[in-house]
Structures are given as structure tokens and as C-alpha cells.
Amino acid sequence: MLLCQRYIFYAVFATFAPFMKKIIIILLLAVLLPDVAGAQGAFAKYLPKADSYPFIVVDKQAFTLTLVDSLGNPVKQYGIACAKNFGPKQKRGDHKTPEGTFKINQLLYAKGIPHDFHDGKGPIKDAYGPWFLRLDVPGFWDIGIHGTPFPESIGSRATEGCIRMRNDDVTDLKERVEVGTTVIILPDA
Predict the structure, then answer these.
(1) What values do phi and psi take at 67, rounded to 5?
(2) Residue 163 in contact with residue 60, Cβ under 8 Å?
(3) What are 68-116's pLDDT values in tens digits?
(4) Neighbours of 51 (CB within 10 A)
(5) How many CA atoms lie within 13 A of 19 on its CB side?
(6) Nearest residue to 108 via CA among 137, 64, 141, 156
(7) Are 140 and 89 within 8 A, CB to CB?
(8) 140, 142, 143, 147 alpha-carbon torsion, rounded to 10°
């Protein structure tokens, strides 16, 4: 009787094994398909420019900074302020935000660092908020993503060239990125 049960088990298994194999392959493809077939997220078109994940896309027109995952999906979006003038940064003092693909090359604790905005108020303590995420912009060592003592400026053109965020937002972003994170700054229209 035991031999007969084993034979029935093997006969049933042999009959359904090819079918089960197909089911397993289909399930594996369904799980792996997003990576195999390519990204479908809203920011997928920027994936070729990124070599690290997550990466950042800064939209100067929409005043947004978006953290994007490896499939091109937005992970988190923040409001920003950018430079007063339109166009790509070309020289020191032009009050333009650079455009292109960069890397974060330093995560600087900026609490207490002053800056004179040349508005008649003199140097402002904590001008960069708690963090300054320095970017590797050729020819400019002082361009980055940072906090602000002026949160009301978010959503406007107010900076000398940097990307300004609310202090809580730049702190949150700093926890999600690292040195080497790709930053794509989109051009003005």
C-alpha cells in the first residue's frame, strides 16, 4: 500500500511539475519585472544621469526638490527657493542656480555659520540652517543645498545661487542622502 501511495504521489508530481515550474517562473518574473523591464516612475527619464540611488531632482520652475528611487519613483518632495536670476550659473555673483548633474561632495554641519546677504542687516548667524550639502559645481566651491533663517522665502527666487530648504526639510533630506549622491538641477524654461 505504501509503495502504491508513493507511486501516486510521484505520478501526480510528474504531471504537475512542468505546470508548477511555469507558475514559479511567472511569479519570479512578476516580482523582478520592474527591474528587468526598466523603470516606469515619473522621474524615470533621469535615471541614465544618476549612478547612485536615491538621487535628487531639483526643478527650479516648480520650486521643488524631489528624492527619487532606483525605479524613477518620487520618494519625497520638498519645497525650495532658488537663485534670484534665471539661467545657469556662469560667474560668481550672478545670482543664478547652476544647471546640470552634480554630486554631493560634503555634508557640512552648518549651525552657527554666518553669511552677509548684503541687505543692510549685516552677517546673519545660522544663515545656512543646520546643514549645508555642498555640490561639486565646477568653478564654485560654495554652492549647495541648505537650510535657512528665512522659511518664508521657500517657493520663490531668493538666493544667491544655492538651493534653500526649510530647516526641518534639509535635516530630513540629509538623513536620506550621502556624499556621492547625484543631484540633477533642471534648466529654467
Answers:
(1) -85, 130
(2) no
(3) 999 999 999 999 999 999 999 999 999 999 999 999 999 999 999 999 9
(4) 11
(5) 5
(6) 141
(7) yes
(8) 180
